[in-house]
């Protein structure tokens, strides 16, 4: 016989996770933390949130044990509590993409895709193809995320040029090899913007079909160093 109170208590624990995820700003903070450890000040800046608001959202995520913290001097550093949290976030996105029709329209606007332009209007390549071309020295791999995210972890052999610096640093890139740009993940606009800019300036360019989040979760090698 089912103990109704005990079952409700169990489902209440599941609901704690759902409640913590039920806010767009908190999901964006998880998206940022999937790139590596950040301080509350860095997260507030990256998410365009007041510091107090970012801190409150992070406390909600911490109470649900979705993020963990460490103190270094006067600063608190946040990170995801585990890869399972990143997988949960990826799964949530996939369910929204599959079951909420408005998600696709919002995705296209966010990524700057207009009209009937497909995602692959410019070349996109998958992880296995990227690794093959890197081994053959056929491409230059470009990480267009902010420098702190690159330092936290990047694809080996990637060159760091944040997308906002790219117009002034094109001379650092060769013109005789395809440049493959990547950023945070499948829903990150930076790589799309980088490829558009590179192609407009005459560089052969493609983008990685997903990004650093998916690369990490696939268990592929990650390097960490200064940009």
Automatic annotation (TrEMBL):
InterPro entries: ArsR-like_HTH, GlpE_sulfurtransferase, HTH_ArsR_DNA-bd_dom, Rhodanese-like_dom, Rhodanese-like_dom_sf, WH-like_DNA-bd_sf, WH_DNA-bd_sf. Residues 135-224 form the Rhodanese domain. It holds the Pfam family Rhodanese. SUPFAM superfamilies: Rhodanese/Cell cycle control phosphatase, Winged helix' DNA-binding domain. It comes from the Bacteria. Residues 6-100 form the HTH arsR-type domain. NCBIfam families: HTH_metalloreg. PANTHER family: FAD-DEPENDENT OXIDOREDUCTASE, PYRIDINE NUCLEOTIDE-DISULPHIDE OXIDOREDUCTASE. This is ArsR/SmtB family transcription factor. It comes from Pseudonocardia hispaniensis.
């Amino acid at each position: 016989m089912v103990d109704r109170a005990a079952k409700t208590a169990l489902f209440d624990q599941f609901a704690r996770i759902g409640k913590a995820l039920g806010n767009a700003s908190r999901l964006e903070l998880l998206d940022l933390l999937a790139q590596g450890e950040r301080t509350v000040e860095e997260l507030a800046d990256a998410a365009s949130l007041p510091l107090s608001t970012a801190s409150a959202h992070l406390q909600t995520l911490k109470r649900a044990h979705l993020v963990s913290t460490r103190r270094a001097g006067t600063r608190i550093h946040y990170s995801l509590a585990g890869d399972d949290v990143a997988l949960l976030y990826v799964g949530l996105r996939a369910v929204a993409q599959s079951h909420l029709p408005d998600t696709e329209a919002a995705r296209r606007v966010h990524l700057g895709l207009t009209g009937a332009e497909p995602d692959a209007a410019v070349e996109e390549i998958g992880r296995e193809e990227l690794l093959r071309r890197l081994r053959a020295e056929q491409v230059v791999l470009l990480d267009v995320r902010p420098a702190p995210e690159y330092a936290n972890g990047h694809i080996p052999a990637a060159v760091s040029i944040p997308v906002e610096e790219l117009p002034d640093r094109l001379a650092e890139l060769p013109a005789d090899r395809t440049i493959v740009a990547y950023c945070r993940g499948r829903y990150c606009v930076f790589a799309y913007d980088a490829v558009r800019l590179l192609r407009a300036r005459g560089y052969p360019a493609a983008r990685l079909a997903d990004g650093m989040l998916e690369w990490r979760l696939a268990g592929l090698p990650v390097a960490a160093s200064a940009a």
